Amino acid sequence: QAVVDFERLGEHAAAFQGHDVGFCCLGTTRAKAGADGFVRVDRDYVAQAAELARAGGCKHFVLQSSRGANAQSRFLYLRVKGEVENQVQAVGFDHCTILRPAVLLCKRQESRPMEWIAQQFLGAVAWVFPTVYSVPVETVARAMVACVLQPGKEKVKVLENRAIHELGKA
C-alpha cells in the first residue's frame, strides 16, 4: 500500500507502476469539499490516477462512478461523474469497466443525517425491489473483482445497478 499526496500525484508515479489492474473508488461530497474540491477529487484526481496507471502498464481500469452519470447534466454531481467517465475511457486502457451504482448502502464513521435517513428507507425498499434504488458496498466490491476475473471482449463496459447486483452475487 502506498500513501500518496493527490495534490502532487505526478510525484508518485512509481506507485502506479507494474499493475495489470487499477480499481478506483475515489470520491468526496460537495458538502465536505465544496464545489471546487468535489470537482478536483472526483474528476481531476481520478483522471490523473488513470493516466498514471496506464503509463505504468495497467491494462484494465475499473471505475466506480454513479447512476445517472452524464457529462451533459445540469447537476454538478452527475456532470462531473460523466466527465470523468469520458476522460478515463479516453486514456486508452485495453479494458475499462465503469460501474454506476445507485445509492450505496454502507456504514459510515462520519455523520450524514440525510444520507442515513435515505439508507434506512432504501434498505427497507430493497426488500421489495432489491436491485432498483440501492446496492450494498460489498456487492459493488464483489462486482468490481468479478469483472476483472471474467473480462469480456468489450473495450469499455458500463454496468448499471442491476448488472452490479447480478455480478456481485457471482
UniProtKB/TrEMBL annotation:
Q: Which GO-annotated molecular functions does the record name?
A: catalytic activity
List, alphabetically, the CDD domains matched. Answer: CC3_like_SDR_a
Q: Which GO terms describe its biological process?
A: import into nucleus
The NAD(P)-binding domain extends over 4-151
Gene3D superfamilies from the UniProt entry: NAD(P)-binding Rossmann-like Domain
User: For this UniProt entry, what's an example GO CC term?
Assistant: cytoplasm
**Signal sequence segment:** none
- Name one matching Pfam family: NAD_binding_10
List, alphabetically, the InterPro entries matched: NAD(P)-bd_dom, NAD(P)-bd_dom_sf
Q: How does it assemble?
A: Monomer. Forms homodimers during oxidative stress. Interacts (via N-terminus) with elongation factor EEF1A1 (via middle-region); the interaction is direct and competes with EEF1A1 binding to guanyl-nucleotide exchange factor EEF1B2, thereby inhibiting GDP for GTP exchange and reactivation of EEF1A1. Interacts with nuclear transport receptors XPO4, IPO5/RANBP5, IPO7, IPO9 and KPNB1 as well as GCN1L1/GCN1 and LRPPRC probably through their HEAT repeats. Binds NCOA5/CIA.
Name used for this protein in its record:
Protein HTATIP2
What gene makes this protein?
Htatip2
